[in-house]
Amino acid sequence: MTEAVANSKLASIIESVKALSVMELADLVKALEKEFGVSAAAVAVAGPAGGGAAAAEAPTSFTVTLLEVTPDKKIQAIKLVREVLGLGLADAKGFVEGVPKVVKDGLEKGPADELAKKFQEAGGKVKVEGA
Question: Which residues contact 76 (CB under 8 A, 6 or more apart)?
Answer without folding.
Answer: 122, 123
